[in-house]
Amino acid sequence: MEQITILEGRQKQVFEKKKGMEQVDISCDTSSLSGSVSQRACVFCGSRVVLYPVADALHLVHGPIGCAAYTWDIRGAVSSGPELHRLSFSTDLQEMDVIYGGEKKLYHSLIELIEQYKPKAAFIYSTCIVGLIGDDIEAVCKKVAKETGIPVLPVHSEGFKGTKKDGYKAACFALMKLIGTGSTEAITKHSINILGEFNLAGEAWIIREYYEKMGIEVVSTLTGDGRIDAVRRAHGASLNVVQCSGSMTWLAKEMEAKYGIPYIRVSYFGIEDMSKSLYDVALHFADRPEIMEAAKQVVSEEVKKLYPQLQKFKKALTGKKAAIYVGGAFKTFSLIKALRSVGMSVVLAGSQTGNKDDYARLKEMCDEGTVIVDDSNPVELSKFILEKEADLLIGGVKERPIAFKLGIGFCDHNHERKIPLAGFIGMYNFALEVYQSVMSPVWQFAPRKGGQQ
Amino acid sequence: MLLRHTTKEVKVREGLTINPAKTCQPIGAMYAALGIHGCLPHSHGSQGCCSYHRSTLTRHYKEPVMAATSSFTEGASVFGGQANLLAAIETIFAVYDPEIIAVHSTCLSETIGDDLQQITRKAKDDGKVPEGKHVIFASTPSFIGSHVTGYANMVAGIAEQFSVSTGEKKDQVNIVAGWMEPSDMREIKRLSAELGVKIVLFPDTSDVLDAPMTGKHEFYPKGGTTVTELQSTGDSKCSLALGCISAEPAAIALEKKCKVPFETLDMPIGISATDRFIMALSQAGGVSVPDTITADRGRLVDVIADMEQYFYGKKVALFGDPDQLIPLTEFLLDLNMKPIHIVSGTPGLRFEKRMQQILAERSPETNFKNGIGADMFLLHQWMKNEPVDLLIGNTYGKYMARDEDVPFIRYGFPILDRIGHSFFPSVGYSGGLRLVEKILTAILDRQDRDALEEKFELVM
C-alpha cells in the first residue's frame, strides 16, 4: 500500500493505542496548521449552528454575502411552529461598506426586518471583516433594542477569532443575556432544561417526551425547536441536562454560577447512554422516587421493543469495523458503545473539537490498535481507513464522498442526518442506517478498499 | 408555507438581502482551480471559508473536494497573513504534493491588505516552491461581485500566469469555459472533436468532479487542463470565451499578454447560442460542420416542432448566474415561452445590456434585475404579483415552488437535492434536448396532475 505520511506538526494530534506505549497526551484545542486540508470550520460556524434552531428569532448575518449564503437552511433543525430561522438575512456588505463602515446598513436592515417580521428577539452575527472594519455592533444593537423594544443581541463570531468552540461560547454568551429575563412563575421543582440538543430530524421531541413521561417538566430546550420566551425563563429550571459537550457546557457552568442550577452531562445516542441520561436525571430528583420508577418503566418498555429488532442487524454486522470522525468528542464515546451493541468494533476515532479530558477518556475506552485523531484531514482519514480495513465511516458532509470513493459504508451523524438518531428509536434508526450502508449490494460492483477485492 | 414571510407588496429595501441569489467570490475561484490538473486550491483566510466552500461543492457534486486553508488566527489578522501563507505553501508542497497551488483571497485577507502577488513571489524567491511546481493566485474579495466574479478572476489568473507566447503559432483554439458543469465541459470537448478542431479547454472539471469509484480516494483525479496545455494557450490562433461575465476576462488577459485575439460568445445553451458557437468554432478552426452535428441540431428542432403547442405562452420565472440566464432566456423565447421574471444576484452592466438586446423585441415587459436587491425574496414577490407556470433555478428555488405550487426545474448552482447536472450536459444541441425534455416533463406532469378526469389525456 502507498505510504501516506502524517502532516509534520500533526504527529501530536494522532495517537495509536498500543500496549506498553507511553501514555502521551494528545494535543488538541489548537488551531489547524496553515496549509492543512482541515475538516474544521470557524467561529461563525459554531455560533450559527448553536443559535440557528431558535425559530422565532431573527438571525441577521452582518458581513459579505457568503457567510449567510452557506448557512442558509443547511441544518435540519426542525421547528413545530415559526420558521423565521430558515430564511437567510444578510447585510451583504460591499466594498464601500468595508471602507466607510457598515453600521448604517446594519441599523436600517434591523429596523426593516423587525418591523416586517415582529420577531421575539434578534441575533446579529459579526463575521470576519466586521471585526476588522470596527463596526460598533454593540451600539447599533442597543439602539435598535431601545427603539423596537425587543432584545437585539450581538454575537461576536468573527471567523478568525479562535475555533468553532469559541463560536459556541459566543452563542452561549448571547443566550446568557436572554436567560433570566422571563418569569419563572409556575415552574415546578422537578424541572429541567435540555441543553445542546438541536432537534435535528425532531430528536428533541423524542427526548422531551421521555422526560415528560417521567413526570419532569421541560422548561426549555436549548436550542432545538427553540423559542425566545422559553429561553428567557430557563433560569427557573432545577437542573440543566447537557448534551453535545462542546457547545453548551460553558452555558451550563455560567448558569450554575449565576443561578445555582447544577448540570449533568448526558448523551442520547445508543441504549446505554440514553438510559443513563434518564436515570441520571431521576437520581437528581431522588426526593420523588416515582420519577426513577417511571424512568425504569420507559427504559424497560423501549428496550423490550428495541432489543429484538437490533438482533438482525447485529447478526450481519458482527465483526465489521468502523471509523468515526465527528465534530464533538462526546458523541464519539456514545458511538463507540452504540456500534459495539451491534457487534462492530471501532478502529479509528476522532473529532474536530475534543479537549484533553475527552481524548484521555477516548484512549481508555478504545480497543488496542485503535487510532485516535484530533482535527484530521482527508489524507490521514483515507490512510487509516484503508490500513485498518474499516467497513464504515461515520462523519459529516465532507467525509461522505471519501467513504464512498473508498468503497465503504457511511453514516451521517452530523447536520445532514435525515432521521432521528437520538433516543431508543434513534438507536434503531442508527443500526438500520449502518446496516443498509455496510451491507449495500452496490459494493459487489465496486472496487473496494483501495482497489483490492 | 415555508416562505410565509414573503410579502406581496414590493418595498424598497436599504441594502438588506433576503434569500440571496448568489454567494461570494472565493467558492468560484475554488471551483475554477479544481479544473486544473493536479491543482490544490488554497483559501487565504479563516478556516470557515474553506470549509463552507468544500461542503457546498461536495453537496453539489457528491464528490470529495480538496482545498487547503491558511487558517487565519487573530495574530494573522493583526500582523498580516504573509507568514501563514508562506508556511502553508511549504506545508502543502511537502505533504500534499500538488503540481500547482492556486491561492485565492477572502474578505479577511483583502481587508488586511495582503498582497498575494508579492507573497507568492516571495515564496518563489525563498525557494518554497519546488522546481517545476507552480503557485498562482487570484484576488477574490467577497464584498465585490459574486461567486461568478470569483470564478472569472481565477480563470483570468490562470490564463495570465500560465500562458507563454513562444512566437510560434499553434493550430489550436482556446476555449475559455464559463462557469459550467463537468458534463458541459465534456460536451464542449466532444463537439470540438466532432468538428475536428483542436482546442485547449480551460478550466476543465470533467474527470475531476464526476470521477468514477475506484476504491481509492484520488487526491488529484485524472481530469483538469494540464500545465503544458495552459502554457500553450499563448500560442493559440484565437480564443473563444463562453460567457461575457465568467469567461471573457481570461480571454482579455490572453490577448493582453500574448496577443491572442478573442471572440466572446454566449454560453452555448439552446439552439441560437449553440448555432453561434458551432459557427464560430468551425470558422476559427477552418473546418466545415459535419453532418453528425447538423443531424443533432435537426433532432432538437424536430422535437420542439412536435411539442410546440405545449410550450406556447407558458410563463417562466428564472434565477441564477448571468452567463446561463442570458442564453436560457433566449432559448425560452425560441421555444415560444414567456420568461417574465428574471433575477441574478451577480452585479454588472453586461448582463443588463445583453438581456435588453434579447428581450427588447420579443418580451419587453419582462421583469429582470441583477446585483444589489436582486434576490430570491424579490423574485418570490414578483411571482406573487404575476404567477408563472414554471420556475427554473438552483435548489433554493424549491421553497418558492412549493409555496406557490409551481412546477420547478433545478438548474444552476448549487443543486443540493438532485443528481444529473454532473453527468448530462445542458450545452450544445444534446444539452438543448435535455432542457426541452425537462421543461416538457415538468409542464406535462403538472397538466396530468391537474386535469379533470374527463380531460385526462393518454396521448400528448
Describe this structure in words.
- Chain A has helices at 43-51, 65-70, 95-100, 103-117, 128-133, 137-148, 164-178, 203-213, 228-232, 245-259, 271-284, 289-317, 329-341, 356-365, 378-387, 400-406, 423-438, and strands at residues 14-16, 57-62, 89-90, 121-126, 152-156, 191-197, 217-223, 239-242, 263-265, 321-326, 345-351, 371-374, 392-395, 409-412.
- With 453 residues, chain A is α/β, with parallel strands linked by helices.
- Chain A has three domains: 11-25 and 307-451, 3-Layer(aba) Sandwich (Rossmann fold); 43-177, 3-Layer(aba) Sandwich (Rossmann fold), CATH 3.40.50.1980; 191-300, Nitrogenase molybdenum iron protein domain (Rossmann fold, 3-Layer(aba) Sandwich).
- In chain A, the strands form three sheets. A six-stranded mixed beta sheet of chain A has the order 1-12-11-10-13-14, sandwiched between helices. In chain A, strands 3-2-4-5 form a four-stranded parallel beta sheet, sandwiched between helices. In chain A, strands 7-6-8-9 form a four-stranded parallel beta sheet, sandwiched between helices.
- Chain A is globular and about 65 Å long.
- The two termini of chain A are 14 Å apart.
- Chain B is of the alpha/beta class.
- Chain B has three domains: 25-161, Nitrogenase molybdenum iron protein domain (Rossmann fold, 3-Layer(aba) Sandwich), CATH 3.40.50.1980; 173-290, Nitrogenase molybdenum iron protein domain (Rossmann fold, 3-Layer(aba) Sandwich); 294-455, Nitrogenase molybdenum iron protein domain (Rossmann fold, 3-Layer(aba) Sandwich), CATH 3.40.50.1980.
- A five-stranded parallel beta sheet of chain B has the order 12-11-10-13-14, with helices on both faces.
- In chain B, helix 1 (25-33) crosses helix 7 (147-162).
- The longest helix of chain B is centred in the last third of the chain and has 23 residues, at 428-450.
- Classes of the chains: A alpha/beta (453), B alpha/beta (460).
- At the A-B interface, helix 1, helix 2, strand 3, helix 3 and helix 4 of A face strand 1, helix 1, helix 2, strand 3 and helix 3 of B.
- Strand 3 (89-90) of chain A pairs antiparallel with strand 1 of chain B.
